[in-house]
Amino acid sequence: MPYTAEPWRIKVVEPIRIPTREERERAILTAGYNVSLLRSDEVYIDLYTDSGTNAMSDRQWAGMMIGDEAYAGSSSFYRLEAAVQRYYGYPHVIPVHQGRGAENILSRCLVRPGSHIPGNMYFTTTRAHQELNGGSFHDVIVSRAHDPSSEHPFKGDVDLDALERLIHKVGADTIPYVSVAATVNMAGGQPISMANLTALRELTAQHRIPVILDAARAVENAWFIQQHEPDWGEHSVAEILWQMCALTDGACMSAKKDSYANIGGWLAVRDPGLAEQARNLVVVYEGLHTYGGMAGRDMEAVARGIEESVQEDNIRARIQQVAYLGERLIQAGVPVVRPIGGHAVCLDAAAIMPAVPRDQFPAQTLAAALYLDSGTRGAERGVVSAGRDPVTGENRHPRLELVRLAIPRRVYTRSHLDVVADSVIRTAQHCQAVTTGLSFTHEPATLRFFQARFAPVPAGSADGVSGPYTALTAAQKG
What we know:
Helices cover 41% and strands 12% of the residues. By secondary structure, it is of the alpha/beta class. The chain has a 5-stranded mixed sheet, sandwiched between helices. Belongs to the beta-eliminating lyase family. This is Tryptophanase.
């Protein structure tokens, strides 16, 4: 893919520094080998997430100056509402502080003990809210999504046969909605096709089951449809986004992703009864239904970010930057999820560290090793993120064991990505020799990947290596 010049110029810069090797060693030890617990000033290039870490435009910053901070009836809310209605098409818009606020409200409205919620691969907070309200998540994504080497362009598609079998097994009345992510974060930012979404809508309509979209990166999904799906190449990204949403009954949105904002989100639905129920709950958990946990200035930033997100040059530059990093790693032979997704490059930790047992967390180990090498922070998306089975208490073993390098929008230059690529290539080479990983020293009950702590598992090899980081350091110094 050609890498064209970015459709913006730099007006303000934020200084960053490179922590020394000694500083990084102290930092990762203090953080219990969990990059989630690193301080931001201990990180050089931060690819932990693309959520809320984007650079806002001059129009967004200007909009924040006119934010209406009225407690009730903020005019900023009505501008946000109009932007959602125009570009996403949902009539009822309930603001929340961020995407998981929408997940909480939706789950409290629809999920009950014994509910079954199918979806195209889980996301951590989405499933947590479903389970906390008594539901069970069922993965109905196509099998190719679990194969990191598959080049299928729409690995986010729903396996319609698997969904139909689930409906017949548990009964349509136990399924409050089908959860559809576009794109699929845990699969590496893989999109769902318009054809599959259309067929899903037809199937669920037969059983009167709503479809709820995770729209955090739906603009990126629309771009992939435009580029790779027949009959959609002549449509604008904005038109495709509208049509995607038209096939669903509502959406949870983290405006910290596609909308370039640092905070904010919304829940939007078509059913006025559900909207009324959600508005009542948002008052309890978020704030009044005309601010929902956001300041007026944040709603102004989100409204403008929605408009900017569907501009063709903006989304093209976004996808090209992610693809550039991915192609550099592919050319160097680093195992990554293919094809490259919309928001991140995902390293196949199981292939990079084949000798590390899954219950010693290869992705967690690789993320810490990458930080030690260059100060680059990624995010574990494997066994640690998957959590434990609530019945057996055993670690869940997702088929993908990944380190996600999520690229914030409009933040880093190509030079930064070259530093990351060089570090990943170097770290992947060293980690081939690592035979042990990490074990828990502290394990939270919920969403453990955020606050867990670990220690290296001593290796029992005859060469006397005491753990993965000793082995890595020795390889680097050698």
